[in-house]
Amino acid sequence: MRVSAAMTAERILPRRLAVRARPYLETFDALAFGKDERSHAARMSMTAFAVRIASAAIAFASQVFLARWMGGFEYGVFVLVWTAILILGNLSCLGFHTSIIRFIPEYRSQSRHGELRGVLLASKLIVLLASTVIAIAGAFLIHTLSDRIESHHVVPFLLGMICLPMMALSDLMQGVARGHAWPFNAMLPTYIMRPLLIIAVMVAAVVAGAPATAETGMYAAIAAVYVTTLFQLLTVSNRAERLAEPVKRVFFVRGWIVVSLPVFLIEGFIYIVTNADVLVVGFFLEPTDVAVYFATVKTLALVHFVYFAVKAGAAQRFSSLVHGKQMEELSVFARDTVRWTFWPTLAMAVLLLMVGEPLLWLFGTEFTAGYPLLFVLVAGVLARSTVGPAESLLTMSGYQNVCALVFALVLALNVGLSCLLIPAYGLWGAAFATALAMMCEAAMLAFTVRRKLGIDMWMGAGAPVAKEASW
Predict the structure, then answer these.
(1) Under 8 Å between Cβ of 420 and 372
(2) 209-231: string of b/e by CB count within 10 Å (b at 16+)?
(3) How many other C-beta atoms lie within 10 A of the C-beta of residue 308?
């Protein structure tokens, strides 16, 4: 027997209040228990949202512990290296970690089981090869330039290269899970398991007598990344292979690469845009400044995770609607994702600004200097939330090339503003450069979606209107 929120309210609430609440509760029931794909996508977004809440809390707590143990200088070194490795790991996927979200529902809906089995294997081999080559090249470059790099960065960066292949495979496995609409498999290993393992290994190392330095942190990261990725390969990759029909694999590598490379540019630009400010701060300022800015950005992630949660639930649904030529439903669903993104982001932003200073104090008294920056950065995140996961809609609709161009412009703007403002205004310059870049990103994405798909995908738009798109 199914539990209904609307029926429960009628039983326990006064009649007048129950009547007023009924439309909202019926909407909740439809999303929570509906069997249509829109309800499924909503549940996946809500699941991703719940996991992101837990992961944001865990990630925040883990960074507080690391900052307290290491101190500002060593923590600044660690977060700079870790940020660079996250970016390189994402780029090493060559776009397959996102394009596979499009391929899996497409091949499953069209019963193209040979291509499905082919892309599952080929994507792993391509990502592993690319990430290994990049890791070896990176290690060689660091060794060659070691006399020009500050000594406290050399060993942590070399250790980071060891993480790289497994980091890339982890991102790919997350994409495979999202392509199959497995929210827990997609989110839990990366956002729950990995940060907990980093802290556990770090605690064990420090208790055993290791110094609380950036090097020790990177050893902990290596162990956590490898364990997490092996777990994903066992639970996600094996499960995907078992579900695929046991037919001969069909390889269409050239076609997959043609689709994935623009996605690689898009995701690469997104990831670099998201983290470029930390890297530029690390280039111009001292590790202690990097630590303060990174702690501020990590605190801001308590707001920004809403967008990533909705994106995780929406991408697979976008792909299904696109390949089903359901343009009207696509328009309605796109507008839904904007509301799912904006209102929770606004609520979280208000809450964060109320408690931001004591949260930063947890890192250490010197980290409260980042609190005023939150007001600038929150403005950028709110502006970005007004268009929801617009880049996912463009990518899943076949407009990955123009989307890549948008993010190339945003990246150029972000880096240019950062290089101009950070030397003059320090961390304030980094905050304003990032916020302005996010505002421009939202405006360009809304314009692009309207022009290419005829969908007004921004918070202030009226009723959904869409035109036929040429896919």
Answers:
(1) no
(2) eeebbbbbbbbbbbbbbbbbbeb
(3) 19
